[in-house]
Here is the input.
Amino acid sequence: MASRRTPLQVTLSVWKALLLREALTRLFSQRASWFWLVAEPMAHIAIMSVLFTVIRQRTVGNMDAELWLVLGLTGFFLFRRAAIQGGAGISSNRSLFVYRQITPVDAVLVRSVIELLVMVLVMIIAFTALLMFGIDITPYDPIGAVVAFLGLWFLGVGFGLILSVAAELVPELGSVIKMMMRPVYLLSGVIIPLSAIPEPYRSYLMYNPVSNGLEAMRAAFSEFYHEVPSTSLSYVYICALFMIVVGLMGHRVFRREIIAK
Amino acid sequence: MIVAENVFKRYRLDHGVGDWVLKDANFKIPRGVNVGLVGKNGAGKSTLLRMIAGVDEPTRGSITRDCSVSWPMGIGSGLQGSLTGRQNMRFVARIYDRADDMDEIAAFLEDFSELGKALDEPVKTYSTGMRARLQFGLSLAFRFDVYISDEMTAVGDKPFRQKAKAEFKKMVDRGSLIMVSHGERTLKDFCEAGILLHEGKAYWFDKLSDALKEYHKGIGIAAKRRKAVR
Here is the structure.
């Protein structure tokens, strides 16, 4: 080899290589897996929208129920997919750690980026569908919406980092955390409006950073949306930052145990 | 030059900390010397290879390298089954920041591996020997100072082994080999020096045949001991 590369150069080339490789395997590992990647969340959104608007109600907190749902579901999927896919990043990339340039953190982070890209695509398709149904999707505060969306992603990244280490060290813990994801779906205000829940229970549910992220995203879309009053985007970012730091520390501290498995 | 100083290594097992695999191992591997690692199953040969390659770290002590070292080539490691041989090659080239030389690498790999059309098939359809050809060809395409092989050459067929050997002879002063193999013929074919791993310690031998002799002696002693117990 000609000259020594700096650690940053090495990491950047690893990320690029991993990104392309993960994208390839996600898109083409099975027949038409590229179709299901987008079709699965879209089907979920479509079924929920039909159930909600035909049977229940037309608006939630002064916002079109369809838009309310699409924002909630895409935002939540973004968090969950980044967390679960990132969390499985180590075990499914084990064969790659023979290249000393590739660290387990790289695998987890790159997977989260792939999920971000997929969910942006899903969101574009869902918004296009809403437009075609004549629903106004113009965000009232576009930057706020993007910040909230990214906040949910950072939460997923942090959760995925912690989950990936935990699942390696204590496999049982991995299953328990994955099991916890199901109630989180119901308790985050994805399909149940949190503003309709009486106090003091609503305050308890607002300790969940995902609820805050979803409400902030909806509030950014419509000036007249009645979000839960205590919604705080800074809380989302503080939680995300905390989880990312803990996750990175876990990767650092347990690097030998993770690699040696 | 690769220097191992007071290398201790043990793994964390499900029920606590395991025994020492390596216990105060010390050795120096000079530049350009092909070395064979000899020892019983579980003596720590693969562990040591992984640490020389920088994949794993010693629990205590240090291993320093002042040369470029390949990844540890082993059966089925480092290849993604669902991707084709060529896609795997592109991946490795990108890790090593050699995407610009992709054509050159591909040409070498095609010539060396002789995989032909199979190079564009998913790696999971490959036989063990084909995987070995792909891995060996890949690592040779990147021109490391030291190549690390864990039981790789043993799985190839005879023409492939001869080819690998010829390739190593060709770059005798720029690339050397550190290998583990249970085939003594293979070891003798490739290596001059030897390291014997025994009870966590590493013993350096300038001549591989001495290392093998000592290794057999150890087995002999153990067999005698077993007989005596009976």
Remarks:
- The CA atoms of residues 162 and 176 of chain A lie 13 Å apart.
